[in-house]
UniProtKB/TrEMBL annotation:
Gene Ontology biological process terms from the UniProt entry: cAMP biosynthetic process
GO cellular component, one term: cytoplasm
InterPro entries from the UniProt entry: Adenylate_cyclase_1, Adenylate_cyclase_1_CS, Adenylate_cyclase_1_N
Class of this enzyme: lyase
Keyword terms: ATP-binding, cAMP biosynthesis, Cytoplasm, Lyase, Nucleotide-binding
Record's protein name: Adenylate cyclase
Main subcellular location of this protein, as a coarse class: cytoplasm
UniProt catalytic activity: ATP = 3',5'-cyclic AMP + diphosphate
Domain Adenylate cyclase class-I N-terminal, chain residue ranges per copy: 21-206
Molecular function, one GO term: adenylate cyclase activity
Localization, UniProt: Cytoplasm
Similarity comment: Belongs to the adenylyl cyclase class-1 family.
Length: 820
């Protein structure tokens, strides 16, 4: 059983360890981690891991990564025996100039949590700046390597890191699926220092110099002056002398975001951040523990596992707080993260030994080992546990921000992107389908499913129930149901989009209002209209409002007035909205299902004689003015009679409604704006009082002041329900207008504001945190941090960009240079 040495190091139990000894210790640890990583992986992983350094060091046409004019050469890299054998026969020239300082693997590699499903994350570091052309060819080459690895079943990610730019907090990239942008800095460095494995190039300076007796910069200066080191031979990302409060916010937000795709790993990391914040400002980072061990006079035959260190740190934190439910969730996450993919024998032994110290029963072992066979009930329970874990971490984040009046160092545009993604995945709204994370259970399909309708005035709650087997009796007990919804539409959509009902599922039905044939047809129409697997949401999609991407409208699915018609009437003699002298319409129900650009699935079910009018109003409200029309629109009719006629009629109404909203047809419909409140007067001063109606021909607002203000129409293309949005518009006087859209897209205007916009954003963030924390209510159940945008006047017209985005910063630089 290996030793993890995670106890606090006694500073009195120290002897001076020479630099050569530290170098030897770290080199041995790197080799141990590499050996452990390769032993716990398949042939393809071993091949990719071994040859990536070669593909970066050399640039030869015989290599799969060859890209003409791409930078190459890792500082003083020497191929090992296996790598040299691979290169045999390739006429390579020696590398005289090194474009890269070093290549480092980081993350779970070599730890107990590394699995056959783990990605490979590399920091490719450089000091000399690349030209635009060099950068282009380098990124092209890296993409080739990623594709080469992908073909062999290995996912790898490269992060181009410049130590000088990192120390000065310059970011080449904004938030993407794999890049944290400005969201975290020092905590990213903490992870790098505790887990980095040098595969070639310069050694990491911070790990090699003990700075217990003096600050790091002084230690470096003394080492240079005493000729112990030459700085150009070392990689230096700096230390943790400044650990700003704001980074707790950005790093926590980033881990919540990563929790969408990597729930188990992120649950561990965000709890680590919680434990760090608990001891602020005396935070003792795990990387510092690791460094203290390296420089202690303890025996050197140890393996420091960064993930076990995280586990023990968070275990201590939750135990002290007596949060044992969250502690159990942490242990589940750690066990699952470590046991994904194929099990290595040493890992199985150590995990089982670890779990026995937790007091786990055989039933708990069996439950987690059968995870690949989980069905919907177990997956739902597990997802709820994870979501609650994330929400509690989010509550802690907001309370921490309030306690210390945090000025988030994360840039506003990164906040916007992260929050929109979190909101789209975790927010629970009426009509929205909750999707079960595929990382929890990848196959939820059932062989047989029963839908049971319970009528009003029954002993059970009225609505629709789904049971994941054939009915055991004519009226199966609703106590054994898997899911309940008031409407059949939402229940069927939930079952389909979560992969429970597939083309091979045998359907059963207990209902007085709908036939099995109609239910089957509805599910078939749903399957043909929506792929069960959604398209990937691009980062650019999240900068746009959640526009409808795909839409279906189901007519008379659950309530069909034409079923009562004795004879088929002539359409020319019949009003489509009523039956002869009867007041009852021939459209009894409308069901709407749509997927928006953020991959949210929304359903609405409307019944009654005015259902078509309500449905058209709903669609009109969800199609943003001047936005692109949906990619697909389908109308299905399930009427007993007049099926084709009703389908064509409703289709024409829906198309006209969409065309009017997207700008194809002039409409005299007036837009309504209400005053959302006076809360933001504390930040911006007096607001413009809005009348309720805008003129029919233009979107101008009548105001209770000598001036008339116009809300730029471009703002409506960014309007997103559920968010508080702020739009800044610069004026020639140096002042600026602020347009505020509340969570229901109602508008406030604050004209001719003075001061710095960054200060206003800080005030808003603090007010939001205070408000959310003091409420201690549903606000803390929602990932909807305020969003900030800048209006820019360009040659092609007015555009809107996230505040402090690269586009915004470039615009400011250009304007600044033109003023000089």
């Amino acid at each position: 059983m290996r030793e993890f040495f995670l106890e606090q190091v006694d500073s009195t139990n120290r002897s001076l360890i020479s630099l050569p000894e530290i170098i030897q210790r770290i080199d041995k640890l790197d080799q141990f981690r590499i050996k452990r990583a390769l032993n716990n992986s398949n042939d393809a992983f071993q091949r990719v891991f071994t040859f990536v350094p070669l593909l970066l060091h050399y640039n030869h046409p015989s290599l799969p990564s060859y890209t003409e004019d791409a930078p190459c050469g890792i500082y003083q890299f020497e191929p090992n025996e296996l790598q040299s054998a691979y290169l045999a026969g390739i006429p390579l020239n020696s590398i005289e100039q090194f474009d890269f300082d070093g290549l480092y693997a980081m993350g779970s590699l070599g730890s107990i949590t590394q699995t056959t499903l783990s990605d490979l994350d590399f920091w490719l570091c450089y000091s000399k700046p690349f030209s635009e052309e060099q950068r282009y060819y380098l990124e092209k080459k890296l993409h080739k390597i990623e594709l080469w690895a992908k073909e062999q079943g290995v996912d790898l990610n490269f992060y181009l890191m410049n130590p000088e730019e990192f120390r000065s907090h310059k970011y080449d990239s904004e938030v993407t699926a794999e890049h944290c942008g400005s969201a975290q800095h020092y905590f990213l460095l903490d992870e790098f220092y505790r887990s980095a494995i040098r595969l070639g190039g310069k050694r990491v300076l911070w790990l090699h110099l003990s700075d217990e007796c003096e600050d790091y910069q002084t230690t470096v200066a003394n080492a240079v002056s005493n000729n112990l080191i030459r700085l150009d031979e070392w990689l230096d990302f700096g230390d943790f002398s400044e650990l700003p409060l704001g980074e707790y916010f950005g790093a926590s937000l980033w881990q919540l975001y990563k929790g969408i795709d990597y729930p188990y790993k992120s649950a561990i990391k965000i709890l680590l951040l919680e434990s760090y914040s608990e001891t602020y400002p005396e935070t003792f980072l795990i990387s510092k523990k690791f460094k203290a061990l390296l420089h202690s006079n303890k025996a050197v035959n140890y393996h420091f596992d960064p993930y076990v260190a995280m586990l023990e740190q968070v275990t201590d934190y939750l135990t002290k707080r007596q949060e044992f439910t969250r502690l159990e969730c942490l242990r589940y996450c750690f066990y699952i993260k470590s046991s994904e993919g194929q099990f290595d024998s040493w890992k199985k032994q150590e995990l089982n030994a670890l779990a026995r110290t937790w007091g786990w029963s055989e039933a708990e072992f069996h439950l987690l080992e059968m995870k690949s066979h989980w069905k919907v009930k177990q997956a739902m329970r597990h997802q709820q546990m994870l979501v609650e874990q994330f929400l509690q971490s989010y509550r802690h984040l907001i309370n921490f921000a309030r306690k210390f009046q945090i000025d988030p160092s994360i840039m506003p545009q990164d906040t916007d992107l992260l929050m929109r993604k979190l909101y789209s995945v975790f927010e629970v709204l009426p009509g929205k389908i909750t999707l079960i994370n595929e990382k929890i259970a990848s196959n939820l399909s059932e062989n047989e499913v029963t839908f049971v309708e319970v009528a009003e005035h029954s002993s059970a709650k009225a609505g629709w129930y789904m049971i994941n087997h054939a009915p055991l009796s004519a009226y199966d007990s609703t106590k054994r149901y898997v899911q309940y919804h008031k409407s059949l539409t939402k229940l069927v959509a939930w079952a389909y989009f979560n992969g429970i009902v597939t083309a091979n599922t045998q359907l059963h039905l207990a209902s007085q209002t709908i036939s099995l044939a109609k239910l089957r047809q509805f599910i078939a129409d749903l399957r043909l209209s929506f792929p069960a697997k959604p398209p990937i949401v691009k980062e650019s999609d999240l900068y746009h409002p959640n526009e409808i991407r795909n839409l279906i409208v189901a007519v008379n699915l659950t309530k069909d007035p034409t079923r009562e018609m004795s004879n088929r009437p002539e359409l020319s003699q019949l009003s489509l909205f009523n039956l002869g002298s009867s007041e009852e319409g021939i459209i009894g129900s409308i069901s709407i299902i749509y997927r928006n650009m953020w991959n949210e699935i929304i359903t609405q079910h409307i019944e009654g004689h005015d259902s078509i009018l309500k449905a058209l109003k709903l669609i009109s409200n969800k199609i943003y003015r001047n936005s692109a029309p949906p990619q697909s629109v389908n109308v299905f009719c399930y009427s007993t009679q007049l099926r084709n006629e009703l389908q064509k009629f409703v289709m024409s109404l829906v198309n006209r409604c969409i065309t009017v909203q997207t700008g194809g047809i002039y409409s005299k419909q007036a837009d309504t704006f209400n005053l959302a409140g006076k809360k933001w007067q504390l930040v911006f001063g007096k607001q413009v009082e809005l009348k309720e109606l805008i003129t029919e021909t233009e979107q101008s607002i009548t105001v209770e002041s000598p001036k008339a203000f116009t809300v730029p129409k471009e703002i409506y293309s960014f309007a997103s329900e559920g968010f508080l949005q702020f739009f800044f518009e610069d004026l020639p006087t140096g002042e600026f207008n602020v347009y505020v859209l509340d969570k229901k897209n109602k508008v406030e205007i604050y004209p001719e504001c003075l001061g710095e916009k960054e200060d206003k954003i800080k005030q808003i963030s603090r007010l939001y945190a205070e408000d959310e924390s003091s409420q201690n209510s549903h606000y803390l159940e929602s990932f909807n941090y305020p969003q900030f945008y800048q209006l820019l006047q360009q040659r092609e017209g007015l555009i809107i960009v996230p505040f402090q985005s690269k586009q915004h910063r470039d615009y400011l630089e250009k304007r600044k240079s033109s003023d000089i």
